[in-house]
Structures are given as C-alpha cells and as structure tokens.
Automatic annotation (TrEMBL):
Superkingdom of the organism of origin: Eukaryota
Name this polypeptide is given: Alpha/Beta hydrolase protein
Keyword set includes Hydrolase: yes
Domain BD-FAE-like as annotated: residue spans: 22-132
Molecular function per GO: hydrolase activity
Keyword Ribosomal protein: no
InterPro entries, sorted: AB_hydrolase_fold, BD-FAE-like_dom, Peptidase_S9_cat
Peptidase S9 prolyl oligopeptidase catalytic domain location: 261-310
Keywords carried by this UniProt record: Hydrolase
Organism classification: Eukaryota, Fungi, Dikarya, Basidiomycota, Agaricomycotina
Amino acid sequence: MPTVTYSRVGSLDIQLDYEIPPSVTAGSLSAVIYLHGGGILTGSRNDAFFSESMKELVLKNGAIFMAADYRLLYPSTGFDIIDDMKALFSFLSNPSFSEDHLPSGVSLDASRIALLGGSGGVYPAMAAGLYAQPKPKVLLLLFGMGGDVLGDSWVAPKDGFMPFPGSESVTEASLAHLLERTPLPISDAPVKVQPDQTLRDDQNRMGLFMHWWRTGEILDYVVGEPISATLRALPASERLAVVPTRLHPAILQACLDSEFPATCLVHGEQDGIVDPAESKTTYNRLMELGVKTELVLVPDAVHALMSPTNPAAPAVGAEAAYGKGWSFLFTELANS
C-alpha cells in the first residue's frame, strides 16, 4: 500500500497507508480508516493486529481502505491524539489529497469516511467523531477503550495481572528504560508475535500498558496530569466534577453530543482487558442523545471476541457480531 505523511509534528512523521479498489477506475469513493489497537500506548497501522481480510472486505465493497497511525500515549497525551485526528481529516478533505495521491478520475468523498477502531484505537476514533472536521460519517468501535475513562477499570489498582499473555512477567524493573527516562514522541510501535506466542513491541510499551492497567494510572497519561489517585477515592458518579475543566476535552465521554456520528459498538461480555462497560456506557449515552447507535454483545467472548479457551479461538457468535458491525458501517456509508 502507498504511504503518505498526513501530519508532521517537529521531526515526527505521522503516516497513513491507503489502497484503492482494483476494479475502480473513476468516481468519487468512500473510505474506511482503520485505527489500530495496542492500549493507546503501542501498535502500528500494519502490525500483528492488522487483518488482511478486513482490508479485502473494504475493497470488495468499493471503498478506499486506509490505515492511519496516531501519536501514542507517553509522552504524548489524549490532546495530541485529538490534534492528530483533526489533522488527518483536514488532510483527507483537502482536494490536494485526491489530486496528488489518487489516479486521475478517482477522488475521495470526504463526506463519506468511516472509522474502524479496535481496542485502543477506539479512543482516537471517538476523538475524531467529536473534534474532526468534516466529521466521520460512521464509527465501528470494537471492544474499545475510551467510553468510560473515569471508571475503576482505568483508575483503580488491580490485585492480579491483566488477562493477557506475558503480563505476569511485567515488572517495574523490566520497564525501567521507559519509566526512568521519558521517551521521545512516537506514532509507530509495531506489535510482533514472539516465539512463545506473546505479543511485544521493540520498546516493550505493551508491558507499560499492562503495568499502568494494574496500577490504575492510564488516565494520568491521557490527560497529562496525575489525577487518578484523587478520582479513585471518590464514587464513580462524582469523579467528573473534580476533573479540572481544562482536561475535559480528553475525557471523551463527557463531550458526547447529538452531532456524534452513527456508531456501532461490538464487545465481548467476558472481556477482562477492556471492560464491556466502556461500550455499554457509550451506547447508553448516544441513545440518550438521539444518535443512531447499535450495541452488539457476544456473551462468551473475552477481548478481541476470542473464546476463553486455551488455545484461544474466535468465540461462538464472534463472526455474526463482526458481520452486524460491518453491515451497519456499509449501510451508513451508502446513505446520502
């Protein structure tokens, strides 16, 4: 896939891959942008989380497939991710994108862009739904982070390890290279499958996600200030009131409004990595606001709609859930 830089911050290039349906030679096309997972701390637009079948499905439906990076938490914050999503949509909506990067006679219809966010990629997808101009037309949010960043799954310490392969080996000592010296901003940290089938990136930012999940500090790095300790001492219903107003834009759930794009949320009911309450909270709030929304829950699925068995396999009902999500997305893209 061709790669373009959609934003440059200092010396950091933030990039986008794209591919045009091979059968299309002319016309104004819709697009589906994939935003990768990785706990918002790691991952890349084309790493172990990437699915070729996802790309092929988009192309088969006549849309341009895109995969975009975004700045990762630490040292960047949720505010930086918001800026990246604004920059992405500004870049794509400018006629120069079609003129410079697409074949003659083919253009991108910036009013028909869908976002597919998975896991940590749901946070930037929701940020785009709130702050990008033009707004994405539809969001498909898969088992994702961002719907309830004030909940205990974000701010409360955990007694055990994250139910993710390799989490039991994560210690502060193994993360000293990150914790003792703030790293440079980064937007691309590909996750790779190790020989023991665990997932890891070169800097072990995945381990940092597991560590802060356990200590209940992830939110501190989203807003850029240490507020989790204060919040966890309060009932969940009282937490937003003590968050400084200047930090509210990064608390996405506090900013949802009736202009939010049509949204389908898919989540496993047994997910121990990203609490299904995140998707349920977003769904309930969007329903209150009158936004077109659907929630698809898979009863016996853990994270990524996998079964809790060993070895893991797609959960019963996972394929149907994905099918409902894709149907929602393509139906909304087709609506004028």
